[in-house]
Write a structure and sequence with these properties.
548 residues; alpha/beta; 17-stranded mixed beta sheet; two-stranded antiparallel ribbon; 16 helices; 19 strands; globular; disordered N terminus; signal; metalloexopeptidase activity; PA_dom_sf; M28 family peptidase; Peptidase_M28
Length: 548
Amino acid sequence: MKPSHILLPAALSLLVAACGAPETKSQTIDVSADETNLRAHLEFLADDDLKGRQTGSEGHEIASNYIVSEFKKLGLEPAGDDGSFYQRIPFRKSTLKENSASMSFESNGEVVEFEFPKQFITGPSHYSEKDEISAPLVFVGYGMEAPEFGLNDYDGLNVDGKIVVMLTGRPGFLPSEEGAHLANIKTDIARDKGAVGIITLHTPVREKTRKYETSVYYTKTPRMTWLGPNGLPKGEEQQLMGSAYLDDEPAAQLFANAPTELSKIFEQIEEDPDFSPKGFELEGTVTLARESRHEEITSPNVAAVLPGSHDTLKDEYVVYTAHSDHIGVIKDMSREDNINNGAMDNASGVSVMLETARLFVESGQEFDRSIMFLSVTAEEKGLLGADYFANNPTVPLSSIVANVNLDMPVLLYDFADIIAFGASHSTLGETVSKAAKQFDTEQSPDPMPEQAIFTRSDHYTLVKKGIPAVFLMTGFNSRTEGEDGGEVWGKFFAEHYHKPSDGLNLDINYEAGARFTNINFAIGKEIANADQRPQWLEESFFGKQFND
């Protein structure tokens, strides 16, 4: 009798079992993101009971505990401090005392008092509850140093022990992302040069895009920073003793006897956006004084690791980041809904990260490099949780090969493409394209480069440490006929961003969320098993900064 072709495989399996099957380290399983899991995570994190997950609040602690419980469920190893999943961060919240800020200018025996907040504004000090500084002035143009762009605003100037006076903004010829990065480090440059204070000048050019009165609105808002292990703000010894933002008309008085009148400088930058004025010393002395109130709170990052399997590469890490905080509750209790639930910002990103972690664990695969999943706090306060980790990493910073950041994927439409901010700066761009194509999805170029989004989320804190990163968002094309993804995306930002309406009443597309998760999983797998760690591209500005 001819043996059945159906029974033959079973018989062969029994034979192999009897003879002894070859040992395998793990069984690979084809896994895919589950819409139900994404929904469960997102609905928990964006629930009213968490009160908008404000940094330092009970609601954010509940969110952090939930994330830890999910990491434990997956069997991930703790990667926080002291063998725990938590990296507990001490923060200082500082508020400017009412009627305490003053600014005066003395020149040739005459003293001019500037009016707060009508003519100048300032913020609280994180260092002291009462401070006052008097020092001579040096105008430093835009206050930038970038030899590769021909910028050296401190050339020939001695600002040690002085207050630097600089224009807000940057020259127009700078590329968007590079210019934003250089603008972000102005304070660091001034401090490194020995300046004791900064006066930033509001310009007519800036007035066209952001009115001076808009900045005045935020003078009563508390500011926050993290405290280093030495108890100092960001762990740094104090150098900058004072700061002020001065409106354009009163600022002219500082230039009364200057080599170039301020009005002339304003005319030049208005006529030629690429113009970068040269610096010079200013006559006179400015005195800045203020009083601040301090409150100290704590809030955790949460970190877990799936260990790698390679003998040496297991000591390298691919890091996924997603911020778990949001902006809490609106103080206007007359509103029917005053809870900023942050469904898209960023319960969606955390949900994608948790589901990505599940795919790594349940795939049964072994990965050469270790995978870290890092939920960070205080993103809404200025990327502070991520910045704390970047300066106080729980693994050696040099061992982190890449960062994939998940911040606010707008899962409200059937996206057909993705945007990877930072893709043009490192080999990660090619990795993202390869991963996306596995799911019939294209990578599109940044549709709004003027926004410099690459410098505006948590990954940027690791970029500044030289670590290649990408920040993914859903693209503006849709798979659904008649649906304009860009229009849906834009409507979300216009109507729901940082508002109570960013909640569970949104028409969330969990199928799109699953696809977005699968793409992120594919990106991480590619990085984890690649022979070489990701590299900055030589022609990239960041490559030139970090490849030396």
